[in-house]
Specification:
With 347 residues, this protein is an alpha/beta fold. The protein has three domains: 76 residues, OB fold (Dihydrolipoamide Acetyltransferase, E2P) (Beta Barrel); 158 residues, Rossmann fold (3-Layer(aba) Sandwich); 73 residues, Orthogonal Bundle (Ribonucleotide Reductase Protein R1, domain 1). It is built from eleven helices and 15 strands. A hairpin with a 2-residue loop joins strand 12 and strand 13. Helix 3 crosses helix 8 and helix 8 crosses helix 9. The radius of gyration is 22 Å and the shape is globular. The structure holds guanosine-5'-triphosphate (GTP) and zinc ion. The site of zinc ion (ZN) has 9 residues, from helix 10. Zinc ion binds next to helix 10. Its cofactor is Zn(2+). One of its GO terms (cellular component) is cytoplasm.
């Protein structure tokens, strides 16, 4: 059976990374599960094969949705990603954990109720923009709006960022699901983010016809527990792929300064014109942001949210950088210990 690679989400972007020899000898696959010492990959024939990780390949470098080349038994190399979503991993060894690669569209989900708020949506928008995925705000419960008419939620969402499409839906309604399917066609990859209870499972069920379980699977090893994800790529009715992982549902902001700058482009540009390059926009002389607020050209609440988002991002990013420094020293120790061990085993 020859399924077109396009079905997997393959495009010129990936094809252009292969040299002639690789085209002749290797097969592109897409990772649908990342385990501790192996990955499960989707082949061009849409079969799932388990590939052991050998040599320098380690699970922490791989993400669900990655494209890789295999010679049939081994994973030869990962291809450069079009988009990447990561999160700050929990625990002392804080490091960025890769959540999903090559997502085209991120459905940022909220509801016509108290879950809806600009700050939350902006945080997800910054993540999507930073990852270079197209953000679509999906507002569920249009059939049961709580605090104001459903259309008002839509209007508020539309005013957040003009680059984001807004879809007001009843997640249980087949016609509304069909409206979302324009992002879910053949070759497209999407993911759902949003708080618990906003309707992500309901949307996922509507788009795939599957009841998706996103429980974390833990594989124990001597050094502790390593979290992997269960089967995470799901085919949608419209032909595309939905990536659903526990990590995706618990995304936190980190290292997203470019996304924040894109989302708040106007404020970012103003801030560059402040007299002091480290201006905190809290009343310093020559503050262009402050001046715009005073002139009524900028919403002060939006400025406050922007500042908080930057702070949150800086806080989390710093922790990762610091941990990385600490980790380097530690990993040297681990590496030499491992070497000694393999030497003893005669590997
Ligand atoms: N009336 C109505 N009910 C909805 C809508 N979207 C979701 N629900 C209901 O809201 C409840 C929560 O929806 P879920 O799909 O489980 O939410 P979730 O985001 O997956 O939540 P987690 O699994 O906790 O992440 C369910 O009872 C859904 O049937 C909607 O648009 N309209
Ligand atoms: Zn300023």
């Amino acid at each position: 059976m020859t399924t077109d690679l396009t079905d997997l989400g393959w495009s010129q972007f990936f094809n252009g990374q292969l040299d002639l020899e690789e085209i002749g000898t290797l097969t592109p696959v897409r990772l649908s599960e990342v385990r501790r010492r192996s990955v499960v990959a989707l082949t061009p024939a849409l079969e799932r094969v388990e590939i052991a990780l050998t040599g320098d390949h380690v699970a922490t470098d791989m993400a669900v949705g990655d494209f890789a080349l295999t010679d049939g038994t081994r994973l030869i190399r990962l291809l450069e990603r079009k988009t990447l979503i990561s999160r700050k991993a929990a625990g002392i060894a804080a490091q960025a954990q890769l959540i999903a690669a090559n997502i085209d569209t991120l459905f940022i989900t909220t509801s016509c109720n108290q879950d809806f708020n600009e700050a939350r949506l902006e945080r997800y928008l910054a993540i999507a923009l930073d990852a270079e995925a197209v953000p679509v705000i999906v507002i569920t419960r249009k059939d049961r709006p709580e605090e104001m008419p459903a259309e008002d939620y839509e209007t508020r969402a539309k005013s957040i960022y003009e680059g984001a499409e807004v879809m007001l839906v009843n997640a249980k309604d087949a016609e509304d699901i069909a409206r979302l399917e324009r992002y879910c066609g053949r070759g497209q990859t999407i993911a759902l983010v949003g708080s618990s209870g906003v309707g992500k499972s309901t949307l996922a069920r509507g788009l795939t016809g599957e009841e998706i379980e996103v429980g974390e699977i833990r594989e124990d090893d001597a050094k502790g527990r390593h979290t992997t994800t269960a089967r995470s790529m799901h085919r949608m009715h419209a032909g595309g792929w939905l990536i659903d992982t526990p990590g995706m549902r618990e995304l936190a902001l980190h290292d997203a300064s470019e996304g924040i700058a894109t989302l708040f482009e106007d404020i970012t540009e103003l801030a560059a014109m402040c007299k002091f390059s480290d201006c905190r926009h809290r009343g310093e002389p020559g503050c262009a942001v402050r001046a715009a607020v005073e002139a009524g050209e900028l919403d002060p609440e939006r400025v406050e949210r922007w500042r908080k988002l930057l702070e949150e991002d800086a806080r989390n990013t710093e922790t990762i950088a610091e941990a990385r420094d600490r980790g380097r020293k530690f990993s040297k120790t681990v590496k030499s210990a491992k070497k000694a061990k393999s030497a003893r085993r005669g590997e």
